[in-house]
C-alpha cells in the first residue's frame, strides 16, 4: 500500500474514515495556513485561520464539490478532532479553523507490511530488473 495521499498517512485516513476529497481539503487548508497569506485571529489564546468554503470550491474544481458539501466535510473532520472550528460574527459570519488534537495522527507514516505488499514489491523489483537488463 502507498504510505501517503496528499502528504497524509493513508492508513490513518482509513482509520478515521476519510476519503481523498477530505484529504485534498485538509491539504488545501494546511498549505494555505503555512503560506502566511491566510487571515488569522487569536481566539481563546489560540491561532485560528479563516477558511472560505467558496475558496476551496474555486481552487479545486476537479473535486466537483459545492460549498455546502465542503462545510459538511469540514464539520465531520472537526467531529473527528482533526480540526477545530470557531465561528466569528463580526460584520458577517466567518468560520475559523485550527489544527485539532488528532491532526498529528494523520502524519504518522508507519504501516503494516502485509505479505501481499511484499509480493507486489518483489514483482515490481523483478520487472524493473528485467527491463533494465534488456537495455
Can you tell me about this structure?
With 135 residues, the protein is of the alpha+beta class. It is built from 5 helices and 6 strands. Helix 3 packs across helix 4.
Which ranges are low-confidence, i.e. pLDDT below 50, for 5 or more consecutive residues?
A: none
Query: How far is it from the N-terminal to the C-terminal residue, by CA?
Result: 29 Å
Instruction: Enumerate the strands of the largest sheet in spatial order, edge to edge or round the barrel.
Output: 3-4-6-5
Number of strands: 6
The H/E string reads EEHHEEHHEEH
Shape annotation:
globular
Q: Major beta sheet, specifics? A: 4 strands, antiparallel
Report the structural category.
alpha+beta
How many helices? The count is 5
What is the subunit organization of this protein? single chain
